[in-house]
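Entry type: protein chain
Record version: 2
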Amino acid sequence: MRTLLIDHHAHLTRTIQGALEDCGFAVDVARTLDEASTAFCCASYHILLLELVMPDGDSLPWLAQLRSNGHSVPALIMSSVDDLEKRIAIFNGGADDFLRKPFCTEELIARMRAILRRSTQITDPTLAFGNLQFDPIGRQVFVEGQVVKIARRELCILEHLLNRAGRTVPRAQLEDSLYAFDDEVSANALEVGIYRLRKNLSQSGATLRINTARGIGYILELTDAPSA
């Protein structure tokens, strides 16, 4: 899930960014609302995290403008300000949730996942395909009920392919969802991730495979399906 973190506090952003990346989120950081606008024009985001007061203005008018332009991307406001009138203004301004600073990153991540579930109207978030099940909340993969250990980056690839199982996922779309602007990505990073994920699936006995749509991307199919 690609996240835009809009906050000017350097230490806090590093902490949040590290915690989110450990949970499989790709995170871009904007330290001003102007930077946030530029990032939003360059990439598609699943969720926004916004500090209420930024160096170049209040984030609520910025969010309200986003909403008036038809963008429904979920947004969570973070602030040390916590009076009733301000909280009401935050929700009326288009925010999906509010979290008072200071907070623990575990609560932030739990709230983000709850927002994402609501935004996609998912009541049971478990993804299943063939004999494989993936729990996006606990970040665990099961094959025939047995836990399969998969590295964070490959887990992100699997999640993206599972969400579009049976359909070709363009390479550019995968890379856009997996990597933030500041990530150091080698030319064959995606191929390496796909190779490792294929190995994991084969060794675990999963009844699915990742086929290559040459020049386009990848498709997750059941093992008894025709090769791409």
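Comment: The longest helix spans residues 189-204.
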